[in-house]
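To: structure subgroup
Subject: Chain for Friday's discussion

All,

I'm putting the inputs and outputs inline so they're searchable in the archive.
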Amino acid sequence: MMRGWAEKFPYAYPRWFGGYIPILVITHPDYAKTVFGRGDPKAKITYQCLIPWIGEGLLVLNGPKWHQHRRLLTPAFHFDILKPYVAQIADSTKVMLDKWEKLIAKDPTTSLEMFDHVSLMTLDSIMKSAFSYKSNCQTDRELVYYVKAVSDLTLLVFQRATSAFLQNDLYYLCPSGWRFKEACKLAHQHTVKVIEERKKSLQNEQELEKIQKKRHLDFLDILLCAKDENGVGLSDEDLRAEVDTFMFEGHDTTASGISWSLFCMAQHPEHQQRCREEIKDILGDRENIQWDDLGKMTYTTMCIKESFRLYPPVPLVSRQLSKPITFFDGRTLPEGIMIGINIDCIHKNPTIWQDPEVYDPARFSAENKSRRHPHAFIPFAAGSRNCIGQLFAMNEVKIALALTLLRFEILPDPTKIPCPVPQLVLRSENGIHLFLRKLN
């Protein structure tokens, strides 16, 4: 429905929630550029629903505190921090591929649902890399409850954020509110355990000295050791908020990106084979992917970006105007109005993209990219509040896709076509089912 409106109104259109809450939905990069070029806060009606779950971390903070947290967390995404993560992500991916190999050996006639498997893999990866926590969640499924809780929470938050009638505290008296509170409890149970175990180890002087001497600190090390200009570290509340935020964003959004990229590979075997050949040429006789290999995956990266264009992991972001805004065509909006940047519709805007529903990785060749509007492709948003973990996410998708293509041929299941549903991340209402065929 929203795509239909975007075709009729290729720049923007208004929506009303409950008949009295207006939001301007942007569907054109010229309008998006104006919004992302400012520092407006996130829209309250959308992001306040997240606070009971992920607290007031980087995703929902505004003003000076957001600037402080962004500055403290930026070192956690430096190249030198991310380089050692490659081996850990590859290790988690291989565990998933080994599982798939056993499953198809038992029953090659049944397709596998990707999203659940990939979610456990990305959770395993984020735990190993960013939190130095070995969970074995893919093999003994000890954290299935956390993945299920996140899945429930993304659905419930989306339902609440898009309904004017669920905004007050009476929400917690209805069945959806009870389910939300229980899912929050399970999610917090996991993140608190991770923090407490690391804090406990830091009380040991030898362990603290060892961490301080580490050449490359992980995300949690940096959170625990971060100090502002006055020497003040993060409070326990702020610490948990950032861990909850990154635990969610660092595994659920990448799970979406990987799953839809695999689906696109299955739909387009000619591009799948070309990616496979590129990866083989890069690795040669090696089996392990290294940091320098990632920058050489030119065609594979083009295919991933085209998957992100068609199936953006985060389909919509929103802002609330802190002051009046004037767009390039002279139209204005007053302070306080909410704006939704519909990334999905911008990525498929026919005035920007020729044949927007067609999968064509050549759109992201250097030549074509240079001729296109810089805000026509924004899977990680843009401006000062763009995704701080976008390099981590892209690296993980490249590693997972490359290792999968080296081991399997991916085929579609024509009886189970995915039905995209835009919650906080892009999921499929009926799962993403694919056939895998082991390569010799």
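Points worth raising on Friday:
The chain has one domain: 37-314+379-432.
The radius of gyration is 22 Å.

D.
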